Amino acid sequence: MFETLKAVPPDPILGLTEAFKRDPNPRKVNLGAGIYKDEQGRVPVLASVREAETRLLREEEGKAYLPIDGLPQFREVARDLLLSREHPVIRDERVVTVQAPGGTGALRIAADFLRRVAPEATVWMSDPTWPNHPNVFRAAGFRVAFYPYLDPQRLVVDEARFLDALARIPAGDVLLLHGCCHNPTGADLSPEAWEVIAERVVQQGVLPLVDFAYQGFGDDLVQDAWGVRRLASQVPELLVATSFSKNFSLYSERVGALTLIARDKTSAHVAHGHLKQVIRTNYSNPPAHGARIVASVLGDSQLRPLWEEELAGMRERIRGMREAFVDRLHAAGAPRDFSFLLQQKGMFSYTGLTPEQVDMLRERYAIYMVRSGRINVAGLTPKNVEYVAQAVASVLQGG
Ligand code: LMR
User: Fold this and answer.
1) 333: pLDDT confidence band, cut at 50, 70 and 90?
2) Which of 2, 31, 95, 175 has its C-alpha lying 20 to 30 A from 63's C-alpha?
3) Residues acting as catalytic residues
4) 367-368 and 374-376 as β-strands: parallel, antiparallel, unpaired?
5) What distance in angstroms lies between residue 215's CA and the mean position of ligand 1's atoms?
6) Which of 16, 35, 132, 249 to mutate to test the pocket of ligand 1 (most atoms within 8 A of CB)?
7) What tens digit of pLDDT does each residue of 3-37 get?
8) Which run of H or of E encompasses 265?
9) CA 56 – CA 296 distance, rounded (Å)
10) What is the CATH number of domain 10-44+304-396?
11) Domain 65-298 fold
12) Could you tell me if residue 374 is left (phi over 0), alpha (psi between -120 and 50 degrees) or otherwise beta?
């Protein structure tokens, strides 16, 4: 049977990491997958995480299965980090958080759950979006459509076009939004746009689903959650996929959560049962280690401030690299003003480079980036930023 299979292309993001590893060029730079690297180009184990792991090793009582919906302490801290402990939906018991294997796992649980309640819905996503978004929802059986998002000239959100398109999304459809640090563009919605979205989705009967994978990488933990908390206050129903891969640097531990807000306590309870069934039939129950780390850091009065400091450090380093990159591009004579990179938030930036220019950067300079022109700014370091800026400038000047 397997002989009949047609070959599929490598994944546009994780496939780059594979190609990068094979590249023998000593100057190679990986600006592909969204992974934070420190000044030395290493993926750090945070000190707060290391300490939590040391404690776990000492205190862990066993490795029995976790409950289907995950570790209770983790579910609570994940919910509170997202919404804040004081949010009225928590008091009203309208919210359920289940543990998920990473943000992607949370999206897939959301997708399989939505097939039960809205099998005919179209899932609307931004053009452009993370390339795995359409794949996850199509794999779950959904139709996918795109709304305009980016002004291609100015590389900022075209809010007027977006809101206009939003007005035409039919009742019962699903609207996928990025909570902050839009992937791939780094261009975020303004607070005013979030307000309008919150009003419109209620009026139109559209279900919002927020992918929130970068909390703390934009402005700070609270500011980054502004839009999603606003939605939570205003809409009757909401789904949010969160990830701890980036803000805890726990990529390989696959730790994330799906939060569901329902119209009332009874429907939240019933929906919780369905989420558990979706999980049980997919992978039974989640892995424990990452969730234990997050629960232990967020629930500890010493580790939590340490983690917040480390998170701020990652955010600041990325900001610093944005500035350094813009300066170096200018100094290298890039025939374009790149100061828009300073307005973009989080790990990613849309450079405006064409797929052909991206290919040229890989072939001539061993600089790897997604063909959409997205770069992972967190892959730039004081050591490689000059090299990358000169290569980009030279490619823009025609090679
Ligand atoms: C990215 O967009 O690079 C990350 O979210 C990693 C991934 O899974 O694609």
Assistant:
1) very high
2) 95
3) 130, 211, 246
4) unpaired
5) 15
6) 132
7) 999 999 999 999 999 999 999 999 999 999 999 99
8) helix 265-282
9) 9
10) 3.90.1150.10
11) Aspartate Aminotransferase; domain 2 (3.40.640)
12) beta
